[in-house]
């Protein structure tokens, strides 16, 4: 896979690692952003990513109302210090996360939160669709995995393309904000309400 200057730039923004180290990490990870971050962390080169291990107990609860009150969002975003919690960069990030949730209606924050039975159900639906479409068995598994990845992209906030720039995911935006503020930042929890929509009990 070709490693572009933009890919290197995004990884550098997320990790504070050197340009050559970022290029090498992306090469080793075959262009996979998350694997490249892990590679840099393993080598002790990713200062921003390592900050995620620190305690994040300050922050903000961001409220956002959209469409004349038809959609409401509440999201808790945490950081380490009150100083950063009051900063424009942090507040702006929390607001953008609330906008993203309002527009794209994720169900989970991370991929790890998706229940195994939900993924199994989606895989079953995808398999049945592949059979109905008459796809060759040799490619059926790849198609199913591709559709499962698309499902993960839709329901996981961190995997969603950022509504203002589809070249970025919310995870990359988070890493860039960690890098610019110098603190661990965590999207802790969120709730989204839509007028007339029934909500299941938690």
Structural descriptors:
single chain; alpha+beta; Helicase, Ruva Protein, domain 3; Tetrahydropterin Synthase, Chain A; GTP Cyclohydrolase I, Chain A, domain 1; three-stranded antiparallel sheet; 9 helices; flat
Structure description:
The protein is an alpha+beta fold and 202 residues long. It has three domains: 5-52, Ubiquitin-associated (UBA) domain (Helicase, Ruva Protein, domain 3); 56-110 and 156-194, Tetrahydropterin Synthase, Chain A; 115-154, GTP Cyclohydrolase I, Chain A, domain 1 (Orthogonal Bundle). Helix content is 51%, strand content 17%. The protein is built from nine helices and five strands; from the N terminus they run ααααββααααββαβ. The protein has a three-stranded antiparallel β-sheet. It has a two-stranded antiparallel ribbon with strand order 3-4. β3 (161-162) and β4 (165-169) form a beta hairpin. α1 (5-15) packs across α2. It is flat, with a radius of gyration of 19 Å. 29% of the residues are buried. The model has no long low-confidence stretch (mean pLDDT 87).
């Amino acid at each position: 896979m070709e490693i572009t200057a933009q890919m290197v730039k995004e990884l550098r923004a997320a990790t504070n690692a050197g340009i050559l180290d970022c290029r090498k990490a992306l090469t080793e990870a075959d262009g996979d952003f998350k694997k490249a971050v892990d590679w840099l962390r393993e080598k002790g080169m990713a200062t921003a990513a390592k900050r995620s291990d620190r305690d994040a107990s300050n922050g903000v609860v961001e409220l956002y109302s959209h469409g004349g009150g038809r959609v409401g969002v509440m999201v808790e975003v945490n950081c380490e210090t009150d100083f950063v919690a009051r900063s424009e960069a942090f507040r702006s990030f929390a607001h953008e996360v609330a906008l993203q949730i309002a527009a794209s209606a994720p169900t989970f924050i991370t991929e790890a939160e998706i229940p195994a039975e939900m993924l199994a159900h989606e895989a079953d639906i995808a398999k049945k669709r592949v059979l109905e479409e008459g796809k060759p068995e040799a490619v059926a598994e790849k198609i199913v995995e591709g559709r499962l990845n698309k499902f993960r992209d839709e329901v996981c906030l961190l995997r969603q393309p950022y509504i203002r720039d589809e070249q970025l995911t919310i995870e990359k935006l988070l890493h860039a904000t960690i890098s610019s503020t110098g603190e661990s930042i965590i999207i802790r929890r969120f709730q989204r309400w839509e007028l007339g929509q029934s909500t299941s009990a938690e």
